Amino acid sequence: MNKALNPTHIAPPYKNRYSHAIEVQADARMLFISGTVGVKPDGSVPAEFAAQVETVMQNLTEILKAGGMDWSDVVKFQGFLTTQADLTTFAEVRQKF
């Protein structure tokens, strides 16, 4: 299991949405995911941004499952947006996972 490191003598992570560091066990398996986009298995792309993010997160969940893992095994996640106006929606959908 990954261990979050948040020393109490420094400022806490912003809104407790991340950890300052994650310690991964020495014998842990690693899975590197190159990325995915909001395309459904049938090749369609949802029209709404929130639905696209939901699809991305579902795709990532399936990739993790294929590797015998789940979101509790994730050490780092990066999302790239084309407009800052989508950040709130992105964060709301991401929090579900």
Low-confidence stretches: none
Order of helices and strands: EEHH
Fraction of residues in β-strands:
5-15%
Distance between the termini: 18 Å
Across the major sheet, the strand order is: 1-2
Shape: flat
Major sheet details: 2 strands, antiparallel
CA-atom Rg in angstroms:
15 Å
Instruction: Give me the secondary-structure category.
Output: mainly alpha
Helical amount among residues, as a percent range?
25-40%
Outline the structure in words.
This protein is mainly α. It is 27% helix and 6% strand. The chain is built from 2 helices and 2 strands, in the order ββαα. It has helices at 49-66, 87-94; strands at residues 3-5, 21-23. Strands 1-2 form a two-stranded antiparallel sheet. Helix 1 (49-66) packs parallel to helix 2 (87-94). The protein is flat. The two termini are 18 Å apart.
Summary of the model, kept short:
This protein is mainly alpha-helical. It is built from two helices and two strands, in the order ββαα.
